[in-house]
Automatic annotation (TrEMBL):
Taxonomy, superkingdom: Bacteria
Protein keywords: DNA-binding, Repressor, Transcription, Transcription regulation
Protein's name in the database: LacI family transcriptional regulator
Transmembrane segments: none
Alphabetical list of PANTHER family matching this protein: HTH-TYPE TRANSCRIPTIONAL REPRESSOR PURR-RELATED (PTHR30146:SF148), LACI-RELATED TRANSCRIPTIONAL REPRESSOR (PTHR30146)
MF-aspect GO terms: DNA-binding transcription factor activity; transcription cis-regulatory region binding
Organism placement in taxonomy: Bacteria, Bacillati, Actinomycetota, Actinomycetes, Kitasatosporales
Family matches, as SMART domains: HTH_LACI
Species of origin: Kitasatospora gansuensis
Domain HTH lacI-type, residue spans: 1-57
InterPro entries associated with the record: HTH_LacI, LacI/GalR-like_sensor, Lambda_DNA-bd_dom_sf, Peripla_BP_I
Amino acid sequence: MRMSDVAAAAGVSTATVSMVLSGAGSDRISPQTQARVREAAKAAGYAPNSVARSLRTQRTRTIGLISDTIATTPFAGRMLAGANDVARDHGHLVILVNTDDDAEQERKAILALVGQQVDAMLYARMWHRAVDAPAGLPAGTVFLDCRPTEGGWPAVVPDDRQGGASATRELVAAGHRRIAYVDAPNPDEVVASELRHQGYLEVLAESGITPDPALHVRAATDAAGGRAAVEELLDLPTSRRPTAIFCFNDRMAMGAYTAAHRRGLAIPDDLSIVGYDDQQLIASELDPPLTTVALPHYEMGRWAMEVALGLRESDRDNPLLMNCPIIRRDSVGPPPITAGN
């Protein structure tokens, strides 16, 4: 079916059909005529030639999104949902390439998307980190959940310092003063580790609590690591043992639950725990459900796509720090009376 057939069926010119179906004639063509053209096109099963249209407009209505492993990570998939929702609402299609953190695959992906003449590009990572901008990225590429080491690109990352402060403040507000931080093993590799620790120390200072080095423990960022770290904390003398624990992520918090239960401790009656990530299938499913800090994946995805489409302004030298809200459930309570807190 050709455009001329739609024009004949609607009783208008092909130019009128083109303007109606492209959205270019909304202020010049009557609503009745526009409705007649669309009805004729629908009845005829006519679809505009997107290739020809892109040649005329120099736009393909596509956005490239390159990621390392977020496409296969359930909780980070919310970033994709946020980006895709904005793209869809504005008539764009997202082309996702998952590189599995392979530099050669990433290079090929950038070349392929640029060759496809995508209108804009997002460069995403699974977790907050500083990265060197890869060669070949088109101007205006937006960095999502990562920040370019040299600046010069729009970027959005979670405000992990604020998130660490919120987690610690939640425990201080419940009356705790012996608060441990179960941290990631290597802060040089995980930007969020140091930032969350800074937030933890900031709240201790503002609350008049002297940090105890024994209450800052590093371990693998999984359930086994969390369990081992908390067992170490629970081996401390009673006078130094924590009444509350802030865990670097929800998987470590899950291990903290196991360690507490093995010692016959009830959560939160004997030990309060706060996690981080609000990870699907973990935080809300623990017993009791875990109070945690949510990573704003969906909101970051939306912001990045809005910047890519020119719907909002950005600072190319300073990444946007997105607020990480506390999600209150049932794992935080006052310290036990016997703790002498």
